[in-house]
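Section 5.1 Outputs to date
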Amino acid sequence: MYGLLLNIFNPKAYASLITILTPVVIPIKSTKEQPFGIILLVLLCLAVVAHIDAAWLLAGAKLGMLLKSHLQVRWLNNLCSIATVASILMT
C-alpha cells in the first residue's frame, strides 16, 4: 500500500508531465473560460499519470515474479544505473 501512495504522490512523475505537456495549448477565448482550461489541463495530467502508474505497477509486479534471487535484482539495478548514466551522457 505504501508503494501505491508513493507512486501517486511521486513529484518526478508530475515534473516530467509538466515538461511533456508544456507545449499543449488549450484555446481560451476569454478570462471566463480560463478556470475551465486549467481544470481541463489538471484532469488531463491526472489521467496520464493514472495510466502511467498503472502500467508501472503492473511491470513491477511482473519483474517481481521474474527476479527470484538477490543476484538477479542486483544485476537489474546495475543495468538500470548504466542506462541512466548513458542517457545523461548522451544529452
